[in-house]
Inverse folding.
């Protein structure tokens, strides 16, 4: 690391950080004692003994008080506006049991007697037998109007009888492609739980979200993101309303985040491609870059909708179905790649992951060399034979490390369906790291916490944050603190072609910085999540400050 030399005649810094630990995340993983910012960019990284003239009468000096300065965090896979909108609905993310879910739904319905629908999200599948809550229960909680509640994973939903009737879902309603209506094994009546595309059957009857709801959702979510030290996010599935929300906020100077958006790829053929090109041009602003496209290639293991190379042990002969067959996926990847889009794919099962790697490899071969940096997100079960392919193909491995915690999703709903040998390769973050592939980190919020420090801790401990008793789950795939920090800083920046601007604390880069109240490297690993963000800085401007005597 080389400190910047101040030249005669240069003005003083606008902002200086000193008296703490600066972990730069540069290529050498250097440490420094002070950082100075001028005009939104970093102009000095070096010792705490500052060069003469760097401080002026108008320089703001931030005393880190033995805390820590890092590059601002980046979330490489999040549903920001949608998560913010959900915060205005019946929010079930804090419920820790079926009893608490019932209480929360009942209380929300009572507090909102005039809403035509009760909508919400965040219930956990393990709280209900087979992850399948019943319509009768929801009828008892909301008897007077339709109710529709997304599960925390976004791949299942729970509806009451009124909602099912309005959506036209009856005993004889066939399962849609890539979806499943759960049914009573005796009567074959819909139970109230729907999986994957079966939830789309409610789209025509659910009230449309308004522009005001999206604006309020972005405002809520942005405040939360900035409080966690995030200044750059990758929206992993942006439709036109989300894109308009981001672009309008940026043009109105209300957006304090940098947004890379993966566009919703619903539809098919030339019409879809024309729409994606139009959105890419129409909604691009100084801080909004609609540069990617989101594809889904399977569902999730818990509901047995992930596409696997071998059958689930508890579903005879059923290995799940991919969203697209190989030929269709290959053609779509080739077309998107030809148009210069970055491709970002949801793939959880080992078959879906292999199909996606095959499609990306064939698209690159067909269209010729360029700096693509396509990515695959979630990567719950990777066949070990496919791990070296990420580095060879230059595909970013986008992990949600917060999920590698040994919770009931894994121990009760996933591992029994796979067996021990296959479960060894669940969330193989360390194995992918050893292969030399670039890994980025994301929350998938609102599926799980938006706080990067929780995911960073879990990636190290493989336990729930703060747990010091439970044996680490799948301990061979744990990684160290420096590796996890890279996933949320420089690696995420590289994944989205921003490594020259952000992701590390180096002279000339934009001053996207986060101040923590303690040095993460001096903490017990089970207490990393306890660190607090004191200040978040985006392009040299303070966008969040925690007032706790600092």
């Amino acid at each position: 690391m080389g400190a910047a030399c101040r030249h005669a005649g240069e003005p003083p810094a606008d902002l200086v950080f000193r008296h703490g630990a600066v972990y730069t995340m540069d290529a050498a993983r250097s440490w420094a004692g002070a950082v100075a910012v001028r005009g939104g960019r970093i102009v000095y990284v070096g010792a705490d003994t500052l060069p003469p003239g760097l401080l002026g009468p108008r320089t703001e000096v931030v005393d880190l008080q033995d805390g820590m300065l890092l590059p601002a965090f980046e979330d490489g896979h999040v549903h920001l506006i949608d998560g913010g909108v959900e915060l205005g609905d019946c929010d079930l993310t804090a419920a820790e049991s079926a009893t608490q879910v019932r209480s929360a739904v009942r209380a929300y319905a009572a507090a909102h007697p005039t809403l035509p629908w009760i909508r919400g999200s965040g219930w956990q599948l393990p709280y209900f037998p087979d992850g399948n809550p019943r319509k009768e229960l929801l009828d008892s909680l909301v008897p007077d109007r339709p109710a529709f509640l997304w599960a925390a994973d976004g791949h299942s939903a729970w509806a009451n009888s009124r909602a099912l009737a309005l959506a036209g879902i009856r005993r004889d309603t066939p399962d849609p492609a890539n979806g499943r209506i759960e049914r009573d094994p005796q009567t074959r009546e819909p139970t109230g739980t729907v999986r994957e595309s079966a939830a789309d059957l409610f789209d025509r009857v659910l009230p449309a979200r308004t522009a005001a709801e999206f604006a309020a959702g972005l405002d809520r979510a942005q405040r939360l993101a900035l409080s966690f030290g995030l200044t750059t996010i990758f929206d992993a599935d942006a439709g036109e309303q989300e894109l308009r929300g981001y672009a309008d906020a940026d043009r109105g100077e209300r957006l304090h985040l940098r947004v890379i958006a993966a566009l919703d790829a619903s539809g098919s053929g030339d019409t879809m491609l024309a729409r994606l090109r139009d959105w890419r041009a129409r909604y691009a602003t100084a801080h909004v870059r609609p540069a990617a496209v989101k594809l889904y290639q399977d569902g999730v293991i818990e509901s047995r909708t992930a596409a696997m190379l071998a059958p689930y042990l508890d579903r005879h002969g059923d290995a799940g179905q991919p969203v697209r067959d190989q030929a269709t996926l290959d053609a779509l990847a080739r077309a998107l790649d030809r148009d210069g889009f970055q491709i970002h794919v949801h793939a959880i099962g080992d078959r879906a992951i292999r199909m996606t790697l095959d499609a990306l490899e064939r698209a690159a071969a067909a269209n010729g060399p360029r700096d693509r940096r396509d990515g695959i997100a979630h990567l719950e079960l990777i066949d070990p034979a496919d791990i070296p392919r990420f580095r060879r193909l230059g595909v970013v491995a986008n992990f949600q490390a917060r999920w590698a915690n040994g919770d009931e999703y894994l121990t009760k709903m996933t591992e029994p369906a796979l067996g021990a040998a296959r479960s060894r390769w669940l969330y193989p973050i360390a194995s992918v790291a050893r292969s030399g592939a670039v890994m980025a980190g994301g929350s998938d919020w609102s599926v799980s916490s938006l706080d990067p420090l929780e995911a960073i801790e879990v990636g190290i401990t493989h336990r729930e944050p703060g747990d010091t008793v439970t044996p680490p789950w799948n301990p061979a795939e744990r990684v160290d603190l420096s590796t996890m920090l890279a996933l949320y800083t420089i690696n995420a920046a590289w994944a989205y072609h921003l490594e020259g601007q952000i992701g590390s604390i180096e002279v000339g880069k934009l001053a996207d910085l986060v101040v923590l109240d303690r040095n993460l490297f001096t903490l017990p690993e089970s207490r990393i999540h306890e660190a607090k963000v004191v200040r978040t800085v985006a392009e040299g401007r303070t966008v969040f400050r925690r007032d706790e005597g600092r």
User: Anything to note?
Assistant: The chain has 17 helices and 22 strands. Residues 271 and 277 are 10 Å apart (CA to CA).
